[in-house]
Write a structure and sequence with these properties.
The chain has 7 helices and 11 strands. It is α/β, with parallel strands linked by helices. The protein has one domain: Metallo-beta-lactamase, Chain A (4-Layer Sandwich), CATH 3.60.15.10. The strands form 2 sheets. The chain has a 7-stranded mixed β-sheet. The chain has a 4-stranded mixed β-sheet with strand order 8-9-10-11, covered by helices on one side. Strand 2 and strand 3 form a beta hairpin. Helix 6 packs antiparallel against helix 7. The longest helix is centred in the C-terminal third of the chain and has 13 residues. The chain is globular and about 40 Å long. It starts with 12 loop residues before the first strand and ends in a 5-residue tail after the last helix.
């Protein structure tokens, strides 16, 4: 597959808000399907960096990140986002690694040892409690922690919304994405994931209402096109069946 994803330049920091950067990465395969990747970097008030869902360290990306400040927190935001964390742990050995429930077990089942210093939960820990709000989404199957950076008004999601642009995806995967209801401009929660929340509809509704109440301007996604404006409106659109 062609390396290009449509989100070039890849493995390059892009300044998108106050103390907020993203870096777009190359393809990763999940059950044979190609997904473009994206990580988010937030600089906390103490100068330390908070790195969400690290991507592959190519084009000297890790050095570019460390030029912004000391890397202090590495985040595995849900149970299936961990692929490059061990390499970032090796590069930044003094950073603390925080992971969602189930991520270490999932990594071990794939032969990857993932060292977790702390498990993420429904409330932000002390290192970023005044700057980043968070909530745990837990369907019993899918577990993901969502984050809201107050200074940049950015909501950072992982897989709760996917928004693939069909023209940037291989032709053969486009019908599957439409079936999964994860195509731009109407990207939503993947259909199988949404089905797993049917046993806990009140939990999901409360989570969505909380995210909307944060009034995000931006909604940063790991896969596909993200939203730089009208974040709360995009949440209402994406989760209209829940609301």
């Amino acid at each position: 597959m062609n390396r290009a994803t449509g989100y070039e330049p890849l493995y390059t920091l892009k300044d998108v808000g106050p103390d907020l950067w993203i870096a777009d990465g190359g393809w990763i395969r999940f059950y044979g399907m190609p997904f473009p990747t994206r990580m988010t970097v937030i600089r906390l008030r103490d100068g330390g960096l908070w790195v969400h869902s690290p991507i592959a360290d190519e084009n000297d990306l890790a050095s570019s990140v460390s030029s912004l400040g000391p890397v202090r927190h590495l985040i595995a935001p849900n149970w299936i986002h961990y692929a490059w964390l061990p390499r970032w742990q090796a590069r930044f050995s003094e950073a603390m690694t925080w992971g969602s429930p189930g991520v270490a077990k999932r990594a071990a089942s794939r032969g990857i040892h993932l060292r977790l210093d702390h498990e993420l939960g429904d409330a932000p820990p002390e290192p970023w409690s005044g700057e980043i709000a968070q909530r745990l989404a837990d369907s019993g199957y899918h577990r993901e922690v969502v984050f809201f950076h107050r200074a940049s008004k950015a909501l950072v999601l992982t897989d709760l919304i996917e928004n693939f642009e069909p023209g940037k995806m291989p032709w053969w995967v486009q019908p599957l994405l439409r079936i999964g209801q994860v195509c731009d401009p109407d990207g939503r929660m993947p259909r199988d994931m949404a089905a797993s929340f049917r046993r806990r509809p009140e939990h999901l509704r409360d989570l969505v209402e909380t995210m909307i109440a944060w009034q995000p301007r931006r909604v940063i996604l790991v896969h596909g096109s993200w939203y730089d404006h009208n974040g709360a409106a995009e949440l209402r659109r994406a989760f209209r069946s829940v609301l």
